[in-house]
Every structure is written in structure tokens, then in C-alpha cells.
Amino acid sequence: MMNRRVFLAGLGLLATAPLAGRMLLAEGKGKTGTWPVTRSEQAWREMLSREQYRILREEGTERPWTSPLLDEKRTGLYLCVGCDQPLFSSDSKYDSRTGWPSFFDVLAGAVGTKRDYALLVPRTEYHCSRCGGHHGHVFEDGPKPTGLRYCNNGKVLKFQPS
What we know:
Number of strands: 11
Largest sheet: 6 strands, antiparallel
Helix content: 10-25%
Shape: globular
Distance between the termini: 62 Å
Strand content: 25-35%
Radius of gyration: 17 Å
Oligomer: single chain
Order of helices and strands: HEEHHEEEEEEEEE
Structural class: alpha+beta
């Protein structure tokens, strides 16, 4: 039976759900595991720009249409800026018209996923499987053959031409 106390408790859980999904991955441990590449929070801050740190380590998002990799057309690999692990091939990059570099497939074993409730609507967040760095979200509205759209924060990718 719904009463005021149950209703308010439910609202409290909804309000804290975004916080439950947030984590600092600075020490190599997080809700989704322990990472092969670890650094202290200070080392991450020294290595990354302020915006890269916010995106990669605090699960932030860059503004759309601000990534220099959005218009990258050359053949090559897209690497995690935190540990240089290859995440995507240029063969799977496409223009999703969302303002973020998008890919329909990921390299085998390159990412891990978790549920993200930051917008109260469940989404699937993906992170680098080597350093745990946040890269973006995966949606089921991409092109064939996978039907997936890995929507990536381009400022936490490095492009390595072939």
C-alpha cells in the first residue's frame, strides 16, 4: 500500500540513483572491477587535461560537436587517452549526426559496460577495459551489421593512423 513514507522513500532512492552510478576510478578500483592500468588521482590529473579528467575519470560528457575527431576520415585506430588501448577501428566509425564520434562496433575485449542511471533512465555506459576510463554510452539505434551506436566522447580518444 502506498503511503506518504513509502512515496518519499521511493523519491529518495530515485534522487540518489545517479550518485550510485557515479564513481571516481582514480585508484584502479570501481564498481565494475579492478583495472590492469592504475594511477593515483594526482597522476591522472597531471596526465590529462581538466576536461579529459572530468570525462574519463568522473564520467562526464563533452559538449556535442567539440571533438576534433568528429570529422576524422583516415584509416586507423581510436585509442583510449588514459592507457593507449585500441578501442575502435575506423572501419566501424560512422556519422550518427549526434555531435559525438560514433562507432557501430568495438574491438574485441576493449570495453566493459555497466548500467548508468545518471539521467534516471537506465542507459549502458562503457569504459576502457584496461584503465576503467569512461568513454560514453552504447545505444541500440546504430547501423547494420550490429545495430549498435557507441557514442564516444572524442576528447578522450587518440587517433592512430594506419
